[in-house]
Queue: 2 jobs
Job 1
Amino acid sequence: MSDTSSRPALEMKHVSKRFPGTVAVDDVSYEVMAGEVHALVGENGAGKSTLMKILAGSFDDYTGEIAIGGRTALLHSPTLAKRHGVGMIYQELSLARPISITENLLAGRLPRRGLFLDKARARAQAGELLSSVGLDLDPNLPIEDISQHEAQLVEIAKVLGNNPSILVMDEPTSALSREEVERLFAIIGDLKSRGIAIVYISHHLPEIFRIADRVTVMRDGKKIATRLIGEVTREEIVQMMVGRSVKEFYQRRERSVGDVRLSVRKLSRFGFFHDVSFDAKRGEILGICGLSGAGRTELARVLTGLDRADEGTIELDGARVQGSTMADFLNQGISYLTEDRKVEGLAVRLAVDDNVMSAVIDRLSSGGVFSKARGRPAVERLITELSIYPPDPSRTVGNLSGGNQQKVLLAKWLANEPRVLILDEPTRGVDIGAKMIIHSSIEKLAATGCTVLLISSDLPELVGLSDRVMIMRKGHFIREMPYHECSEESLLLAATGEGGAT
Amino acid sequence: MSNTMPGRADAPAAVAGTSTPAGIDTRALRTRSFSSIVNTAGVYAIAVLFLALGALLQATGAISGFLSAQNMLNIVDAVALVGIAAVGMAFVTYSGNFADMSIPTTMGFTGYICIELLRYNFWLAIAGAIGVGLLIGLLNGFVVGKFKANPIIWTLAVNYVTMGVIRLVWVNKQIYPDLVGSPPSAVALFDAIYRLRFFNLIGLPLVIMVVLVVVGQFVLTRTSFGVKLKITGSSPRAAKASGIAVERVVMLSFVLVAFTATIGGLAITSLSRVGAWYNGAGYDFKAVTAVVIGGMTLAGGRGTILGVLGGSLIIGILNNIMTLLGIGTFSQDMVRGAIFIAVVGINALSLRRLGRDDA
């Protein structure tokens, strides 16, 4: 810890926040010192986000006391929170894409000379903010012309422009590559040295061990413990998060692989992937590994009928897949769990049951008349099977935690009773409890003879679940690995092409 | 393929490593159906409030005759016309495409078509008018569904183009059913569209509206089309990625509004006994307002046809009170506009309060 001798920059004492029917934050006390990175971890739904929303001024009815810089602060609106020096960096960017970096950075406080904008001064201020996050960009560029990770850094610069004393970062690395993460960590180090208190929320425990000074674990709205990072192990944190000791996370199941179910030959979608051929058998979990941009998602979208192939064939149990629309494909038993849960996966404003039945509407209808009752047993069974919480079919999906939303998405595709289930990042951004349930559900599905294609950037997940992993690089299948050769290291080496061709 | 939806028989009953969380929250179990009942009931409660307002105004002497049987009949007849258009409009709003602004001239245009064809045969005239109406709906649905045109802009444009066509073809003239050489029997049938009353009381438009409401409510809640429309309206991209033919669903909703607009247009043309471009004027906004007051939010995927009927009732009572008060047409438009803005605003605010904005 760099500076803990100093006073706490933020003190939250006995803070609670109730929603109708639940206590989202239950008597939590939490403090962050100036110049400290204090990690906040917990499963989805543990109350981290609500705690941070309180800090951001989203609620005017929380209870308890919050002190900033030693003085009591009433954070009843976002403006008040900002004025007290709280800066929030969310996963989703809040930048306006068509306008320039300068205008985004200085939104609401553009320097003026008389009636007019002082362009020279605006440019200079923007340049200064950009360099504080290590960016060397033309501040006149519109946001849409810069890359995703640059935009993320601009977002940080924007928040820094308000001179915050407390900075909250919510999963800041989820969209970044390795090098970009390193760059972000360097910036965080710099912010620390400037005495800014940083709340760091992440599911990614190794990151926390790299940059945090202390870690606080939350579960079910309560604070479980706060520990110095040097005095706690990863296993202890996980145990506190899930409230039980984690057994062998991936237990190797007995594999009984059957005949070929999915047979893909010389499949191409020009510009995305080329000449892809493989067979996947009944009961097999076939991992697909590759960096982002390798063509994994594009391949999945063709296999599922969302996009059309330019060349090649897809056979299911020895017969060509009939038809060309996604409806045709899913009626023949191909389910595709998208990586984009909120936009393509779920209608978040609708209820759990509406979503779970949404891919099988025609099958639940006869003569155009839809029978919800016919789908209800399956919905209830899936809710139980996947431990969707709360177990209420009529709950609006958007009000569930991220992990439970992901379970609903999986339930939707299990309801199709797939012969082939294509999973695209099935556990991205979900908590450990949900991840375990999703994994065991995948394994059980495979045990019933379903073929699973698992696309994942989570290497332990690929290693732990796959019977075989196909490596994709730049739109080509370059090799396959049986599970006993798979390790995080071997997959990463193959996917990045270290020491290999291309 | 042996896919009947309810489940793989051998599916795992429970998942290892976790138990279902105890303390099942049953309070929320019935909230959804309950809240939609409250919403719909709320619309009718407001309608009753407006009735009470009318009675109060009569008691204070500000208006007279509000509570008379004749006036009640006037209200119901007006509600029928708005309601017919609003049922169709509800499908477009529910699909997430806001509104079909082309219904005023669809109503006018199909009125002309009907009168022109009346000289051959009454039923042919009706079929011809409906056919033309459906074509307009198909065009709107195709362009909005397939090419993702902005529904408001596109249908407004179609409204004006259709108006131009009317003025070109009929050289700015109104036409009269009895002056185009139609057989008197056909003219009599045409007049009866609006004037036929069962038991000397219940008008044909009212019967048609009730049928449309019942069928509409059934289609929206009990058919595969309705369920697909709900998902499409809530999240078009999720609908597409669920294998739903979004273009077709949207197209059908525009065909439905064109159909009900045509029926409404025929009733109005029969009422006025003249084919005129302005026959449907104002029905775009009246219908949208009825839909929104009826609890269907502009964001799509929410609301019921029964609520929309309540909304039409409110619009009908309000118009009647304003007319009795001697408020001019333009001022009436202003009041309706203000109510529309207020309802949309309150909806947006209350949804945000409930945290159901989009999540």
Job 2
Amino acid sequence: MSASAPPLLTVSHLRTQFATEAGLVRAVEDVSFTLDAGETLAVVGESGSGKSVTALSIMGLIPKPPARIVSGSIQFDGKELTQLREAELEKLRGRDIAMIFQDPMTSLNPTLTIGTQITETLRRHLGMSAREADRRAVELLEEVRIPRANERLKDYPHRYSGGMRQRVMIAIALSCNPKLLIADEPTTALDVTVQAGVLDLLEELREEHQMAMIVITHDMGVVAEAADDVVVMYAGQIVEQASSLELFDRPEHPYTEALLGALPSLEGERGREERLASIPGRPPDLLDPPAACLFAPRCPFAGLNDYCSVEAPELRELRPGHWVRSAHPASERAAVAV
Amino acid sequence: MSREGKEPLLVVEGLTKHFPVRSGFLVERTVDRVKAVDGVDFAVEQGTTLGLVGESGSGKSTTGYCVLQLLRPTAGSVRFDGRELTELKGEELRRIRREMQIVFQDPYSSLNPRMTVADIVSEPLEVHGSGTRRSRRETVRVLLDVVGFDPSFTNRYPHEFSGGQRQRIGIARALALNPKMIVCDEPVSALDVSIQAQILNLLRDLQRDFGLTYLFIAHDLAVVRAMSDTIAVMNQGRIVEAGPAEQVYTSPQDEYTKALLSAVPVADPRRQRERKAERRRLRHALAEGF
């Protein structure tokens, strides 16, 4: 966001829709954000919030049809990704932009050795010889702390534990020194102690390689640990956007507040006795959503006026760098109450 | 643990479950045993919750199944309401199962997709020959109402509902026979955070209203803390630490418990920065690359 260099990634007004038999599903609606080199952005939301579709849209990996980027632009490193042909995108993917997915059990091919799967990327994108690629594969496995890397290259994925498989996925993702790594729920399938190791590893590697990262997660703890900036998504829209410190200190959107309030805490006074704040109802159907605030039916502050159910609020900047899409952000409610 | 000399509702002693590891071509033989649960002791007082936490493979779910005799333990004792369950068979076991129910993790696969909501909830009543067809229908309405599920949808099928709603159906079914104890096996881990809080509050309300006893099995340490009076931490088939919930969370004694607690990221960036440092220190201390 510095004036001198343009951001590595600029997503503007992205809209992605799915054509279904029942009609158009507005999975991602008017999503914009920027990401600088070396920075980490967390995209947080619940299932169906559009966070994964946003990531897949950037990667050009949405299934077309039924999905389609209806409008908006994705500028990456000076290129407009929405205009690229499939062959050009393919060259970019895995080399400049890499992705790791939630499930390390299914994202590796069970019939190929770990070594084959790592060297495939190296030979394809970097044109290495078989020998060079083998040598580099050992280095990569060592970099993600796989012990006895030399021998373990010849193993098939089933010989690896979940945490080790995710490390292999990270090794493959990093093999071409990508400028951007998109990690979609990278630790959700892992035990917490394994998660801690993977998060540490990602942080170290990111610092070492000055790589930008988008972490897609539902876990506010992971956000607090890993992110510089946060985008909160709800029903396909960005509802709040701020630096991580600002978001946790002063959440503005009623949904963000409720989400943080609904989390049972690990530390502090709040233990067995306190009732958890829950959010009544559930997210709206994205098939033909109303032209209103999509959170209004679950919002404790909607109903203060009619505005919420008849007009869709715009994303507005409450404080420098802190954006919110709500007629009733926390700071304005406080002001009204006084 | 016991008040006024009365034995707790559930007392588990030396519970052990080994699974055979078979190998061999054409003729299989047992070459080894996996000690899934390896000598576990705990007790749960009536009307309270014991939280059983651990990572995958720690043996926590196997422990739950052995308590209910859904898996027969290899050794050890499970006394429920004064009766030794490991010695019960057939009709006797069936009868005591009315008193102990289970709520499963995955509301997507634990409900029969071909049965209506009404059938799912009333099935335990039918199996145990409880009431008439008519009274059962009324019971189902009451149960669904209690768990916050709109009783006018009783003739629909599970796939028509969201995860949270399905979990309510599963809870209503578990309540149908008016049990004393419910084993909750990861009851909220498949649910979104906003829905998870609804279900946790529901479980707490039901405990308060009906004096239910819970064996609450989960991997999420914060969720277990919110639900439990006492905690047992499992690792590799054994309980490594147990005690009052607040004590285990605020001053853990066991190195594994410490490492486990420190590994959970908390939703506070400043605090998490400190915790990260602590976590790395513990990890090096354990010298056991997680």
